[in-house]
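User: Predict the structure for this protein chain, please.
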Amino acid sequence: MRSLCLLALAAVALSVPVVALSGANDGYVACMTSETCVPFDVNTYSQSAPIDLLPDGDYAYDCTMKPDGSEIWIAGASGDAVVVIETATNHVTHSFAVGEYLNSIVFSDDSSFVMAASRDDDVIYIIDTATYAVTGTLPCIAGAGGSSDGPGQLALDPVSKNIYAVDWYGDFLYEIAEDGSEVLSKVDIGNSLWQLVVDPDGRYIYVTDRETDQVRVIDQATLTEVMAIDVGNDPWGIDVTLDGSRIVVACEDDSNVYVIDTSDWSTTAVFLEENADPRDVDILDSEGFAFIAGGTLLSAVTKVYIIQLLDNTLKDSFVVSGGTNANCLAVQPQVTSESTDVPEEPFEPRVRLDCYPNPFNPKTTVVYSLPSPSDVRLSVHDVNGRLVAVLEDGECAAGGHEVIWLGTDASGDDVATGVYFFRLTTAVGSTTTKAVLLK
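Assistant: Here is the predicted structure, written as structure tokens:
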């Protein structure tokens, strides 16, 4: 595990009163076993009465807040339907059948429609948000078309406005046109993909792989893997901050949440408590907190955990009143192009270069990606600009590449502690990044 710092923090279960909420500071946690959605205040953790999701919201599998914050949309996997809750009143306003085993919901960038993934129908349903009617389907079959070969989790790229999907416990990532009309690309990137999120600047797609216990970093421009970051056992939920500086990953089987610093790709593990069952993640950027749906502890208690991202520590936890088996939650409206400071148009494909860990000792992995095939020279220089070593020199294919530097010069001798620069020179662009060797 890279730069892993296990913070053994005790989670304190708060006694939270059930009170009426105004809706202004509401979060929502949907629970699979009790078939309820429990609103809570994101600052005080006070809760209002649980909202009954039956029959359509049976086995809630996704909970998504509309980009304007006015509604919560819940996918009922066993109910085969969608439940819509108005946040101003915490009342169910719409409940309607859609398709077999719905597991994920995402809004289009302009919120004119919703895409709902149906694992068993092997399609993504298109739902008009003005009429709440299903207006179309998009086939999305990964394998032979069996009951578990359909689409899984969905995510919006706020820059390109395209939508991405992974197949259910499968290998493939799908790129879908912004109007939901067609699958633009289908690429094999993993083993048992589960949840994904797109960096708000549109450069990377982050995907959890539950078989390899990794977060796969995918270059959005080329749909190739840049790197795979080791996390804990069975990574489930994932989210990224609006500034792209932190990725938060919930690992269901080891009671830990992992925070990835994207400046150096280092990881910090935050221990929740024994037998915690972390699943879905939603970051509330205005407060600097990540909220985690805690599943069910051995005592059948359901909790929500709050991670403080300023120092990557467990800030609080609270017991969910009127809900059991918390599976998904929403505390922040879905991110779109209007909620970020990113450009209107996607970034042009470009050369990218990074390394991890950083600082390092005794070795670091240098990762780079190319938008098209090119001759490549990857060299190491000291702070005075002198050439230390050449790591790559020749033709390389488009996509992601990586090479390990052992902290040695061209003769194979160990170099001294200090700052070093990796310089990548290609026919399609050049770039430099810095690394620190600490002995």
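The chain has two domains: 6-336, 352-437.
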